[in-house]
Design brief:
Blueprint lengths: L8 E2 L4 E2 L4 E2 L4 E2 L3 E3 L4 E2 L4 E2 L3 E3 L4 E2 L4 E4 L13 E4 L4 E2 L4 E3 L7 E4 L4 E2 L4 E2 L4 E2 L4 E2 L4 E2 L4 E2 L4 E2 L4 E2 L4 E2 L4 E2 L4 E2 L7 E4 L3 E5 L1 H6 L4 H16 L4 H11 L4 H12 L6 E2 L8
Parallel strand pairs: 1-4, 2-5, 3-6, 4-7, 5-8, 6-9, 7-10, 8-11, 9-12, 10-13, 11-14, 12-15, 13-16, 14-17, 15-18, 16-19, 17-20, 18-21, 19-22, 20-23, 21-24, 22-25, 24-26, 27-28
Antiparallel strand pairs: 26-27
Length: 266
Amino acid sequence: MSRIHPTALIAAGACLADDVEVGPYALIDDHVAIGSGTTIMAHAVVRAFTTIGERNRIHMGAVIGHDPQDVAFDPAVESFVRIGSDNIIREYCTIHRGTKPGSETRIGSHNFLMAGAHVAHNAQVGDRVILANNALLAGYVTVGDRVFISGGAVVHQFCAIGRLAMLSGNSRFSCNIPPFVSALERNSVAGLNLVGLRRAGVGREAVRELKEAYMLLFRSGLLRAEAIARMQACAFATQEAQEFLAFVTGSSRPLVRARVTGSADE
């Protein structure tokens, strides 16, 4: 029994593994590669220069690999979307290809993009990331592993979000968000993402050092350069605290700011 519905439109130049399932009225262009065990459901669209790995589930009406929403984009440009394996991409998600020749939008593996989420051109999304309903990532956004972006949150172009950060619902960000924090509202941070840290199995010593780093950066009243110098003097031993320091040191954009109330234990 065929796994491809007779109403699906699949270009001759598309390369699908033998067990890929394609639903009614789905559209798959030339120069598309789809790996084993992947399901493309009804009315989904996969445009040219898209590569999708194994065991992904692309739900109804999702559009992957379409032209970026960039007024300077030339539709003749060859650019890419690359998606890993074991992702769930729910109804009406949109993932756009790169805007410059040869560039790409990349999504890793084991991610969950809920209905209506948008990943713009040249965004880089890691592994085990959750984008809840209608979360919006602008162009060139970078998202670390295991980030949770709640419903309706929006992230400005070129922002970076560190690993295991959590963004609250309907929040909006134009600043970089360090790893392991809970961010909310307008470019604000309320504390460490302690629930996420616990679920990820991060040890007590790492949490202690992260609290120390958080307090120096967000609660000490020091300028960023001064806080970095104090963190460097602490000679953190855990990988997580070192990662926090490296992100803050390397950030070329402003960082989110501490909310008026709250603490590292929040």
